[in-house]
Design a protein that fits this description.
The protein is α+β, with helices and mostly antiparallel strands. It has 4 helices and 4 strands. The chain has helices spanning 14-29, 43-52, 79-87, 91-95, and strands at residues 3-7, 34-38, 68-71, 74-78. The protein starts with a strand and ends in a 13-residue tail after the last helix.
Length: 108
């Protein structure tokens, strides 16, 4: 299972930058293995992300903003969903992981 965080490396939005940093920082701090996918550099990945976000999570106007989080092809949620799971201490369930399988390095 690969957690993918879709980000935009070049964005003019301070809020988007902060949200991306919050998600990536949390995953790194908790040693949760993930892959960053930069939608500003990879058109194909950006279009894949847009197509795979459920209709009920699409904004009324425009495109969904990063960060968007997937476990393989399964949509986990956006920053608001992530933040809510963090507040409720349910991040592993939100990501579709068990805490044992999510660590980058197994502790021996």
């Amino acid at each position: 299972m690969v957690i993918r965080v879709y980000i935009a490396s070049s964005t003019g939005s301070v809020a988007v930058k902060k949200n991306q940093q919050a998600v990536v920082g949390f995953l790194e701090a908790n040693r949760i293995s993930f892959q960053e996918v930069d939608i500003t550099m990879l058109e194909e990945q950006r279009l894949w992300m847009y197509r795979n976000i459920p209709k009920d999570k699409q904004p009324e106007k425009g495109n969904p903003l990063p960060p968007q989080i997937f476990n393989e092809d399964r949509y986990c949620g956006d920053y608001e969903d992530f933040f809510e799971s963090k507040e409720n201490n349910t991040v592993f369930a939100f990501l579709g992981l068990s805490s044992q399988t999510s660590l980058k390095d197994s502790e021996s």
